[in-house]
Design goal:
With about 260 residues, the chain is of the alpha/beta class. About 45% of the residues lie in helices and about 20% in strands. Pfam families: NERD (PF08378).
Length: about 260
């Protein structure tokens, strides 16, 4: 299955725009600091070792400073990693058969200003609001249905963990987004349009069949296209086209909010 129909907005477009904006804010200052560090290290190396070691050490310090700025934890890195995860999910979803599935990416949820929907799939097997999330490589997702933490009432389906880190809040966000889309589509089309909440997971280990946390399905991104395609058919091709057209009208590209008027 190849070449799914894709909406006018690219996967991860607004997240990448936000990353570029944040990265540009203090780029000059970071480069100056890197140059000063490299120069200082180079002078010390030239005096202690040999003169030609100075430029090499200086360049190494400068490159290390720049590389560290790209991988250190913080908003800039998080936005870049999030955008890349959305792009990878978009490539996976492009494998869905365009005859039966319409895919929209990076859409604004006007009911919740400033919030975007990473992906929306409208297909013969249903409508899916999909959030892309990157997790640490090698970690494992697990659901904890009982224990002392549950006394705080975090989530009706228990807690969900990525390694030692709780990602329970993500389930609530994904479920709310799916409900918002369902309400918009149902109101526009004058009949109920159920929307399933899905989280496409990158990096962490997830069972091949996925795992549920409340009403939210966590699915490894690589297995997502097949998981959606093999579900029972619930819509006709005509219904898919009608729902997809309504989604296009109701969910504008999120990137438009970053462009000057």
């Amino acid at each position: 299955m190849r070449g799914a129909a894709v909406g006018t907005s690219r996967a991860g477009a607004s997240a990448w725009a936000r990353y570029r904006a944040l990265a540009a804010e203090h780029r000059r200052e970071r480069l100056v600091i890197g140059a000063v560090l490299g120069l200082g290290a180079g002078v010390v190396a030239a005096g202690v070792i040999v003169w030609w070691a100075g430029p090499l050490v200086g360049l190494a310090f400068f490159a290390g400073h720049v590389a560290y700025g790209r991988v250190r934890r913080g908003p800039v890195t998080q936005w870049r990693q999030g955008a890349l995860a959305e792009r990878r999910t978009g490539k996976r979803l492009a494998r869905l058969d365009p005859a039966g599935f319409h895919v929209l990416h990076d859409r604004a949820l006007e009911a919740t200003p400033g919030t975007n929907l990473d992906h929306l799939v409208v297909g013969l097997t249903g409508v899916y609001a999909i959030a892309s999330r990157r997790c640490a490589w090698g970690t494992r997702l697990r659901v904890e249905e009982s224990g002392p933490w549950l006394e705080r009432g975090a989530w009706a389906g228990g807690w969900i963990w990525n390694g030692r880190r709780s990602v329970t809040r993500l389930s609530g966000t994904a479920a709310r987004s799916a409900r918002a889309v369902a309400e918009m589509l149902s109101g526009e089309l004058d009949h109920e349009v159920p929307v399933a909440a899905v989280v496409a997971v990158h990096g962490a280990r997830v069972p091949h069949a996925g795992m549920r946390h409340g009403d939210v399905l966590y699915q490894a991104a690589r297995a997502l296209p097949n998981a959606l395609a093999v579900r029972p058919v619930v819509f006709t091709s005509a219904q898919v086209a009608t729902i997809a057209a309504a989604a296009e009208r109701l969910l504008p590209p999120m990137l438009e909010q970053f462009l000057p008027e």
